[in-house]
Amino acid sequence: MSNDFGGRMTLRFSNSTLISLRSTVTMSPGRNSVEAIANQDGSVDRAGTVKPGTCEISFAAADDHDYDALISGNRFNATLIEEFGGRTHYFTNAFLSGEASINRMNGEVTGLSLTFEGYRKAAS
User: Fold this and answer.
1) Which alpha helices (H) appear in the chain, and where do they start and end?
2) Stretch 92-114: mean pLDDT, rounded?
3) How many CB atoms lie within 10 A of CB 43?
4) 61-95, pLDDT tens digit by residue?
5) Which residues are paired to 81 by β-bridges?
């Protein structure tokens, strides 16, 4: 596996929606979170919580994107291809969560995350 990151990336949903990604893609593929709890006697416990996997995305606004439909539509599978990094990421039973915010100066959409149940990656 290479240690190359960035470069050209494409995100396609199984319903044929193609997202033109911009700037940052931040993934949190883990499905568990652990919180440290300090006890009054100085000992430390932990509490585990199951959580969804997420992938924060920013992308170019498009006139044909109906943001309400993207957020409230059926679940889908998605594929993220990192051409330069040589990786393909597969997300299953996914949906978009959050609230779309569009910067009218540069056309960038932020505030949405791809939320998913299943994740795997492979070398391209």
Assistant:
1) 67-72
2) 94
3) 8
4) 887 788 898 899 999 999 999 988 889 999 999 99
5) 10, 88
Indicate if the pLDDT at residue 53 is higher than 90.
yes
Residue 94 near residue 75, CB atoms below 8 Å: yes
The 8-class DSSP code of residue 40 comes to T
Determine the Cα–Cα distance for residues 6 and 34; give it in Å rounded to an integer: 29
CATH for 9-123?
Answer: 2.40.30
CA 108/CA 100 separation, integer angstroms: 10
For the residues 84-113, what does the mean pLDDT come to? 94
DSSP three-state, residue 122: strand
| pTM passes above 0.85 | no
How far is Cα 22 from Cα 10, in angstroms, rounded to an integer? 10
Alpha carbon 104 to chain centroid, angstroms:
23
One-letter amino acid for residue 51 of the chain:
K
DSSP assignment, residue 124?
Answer: -
- Structural domain boundaries in the chain: 9-123
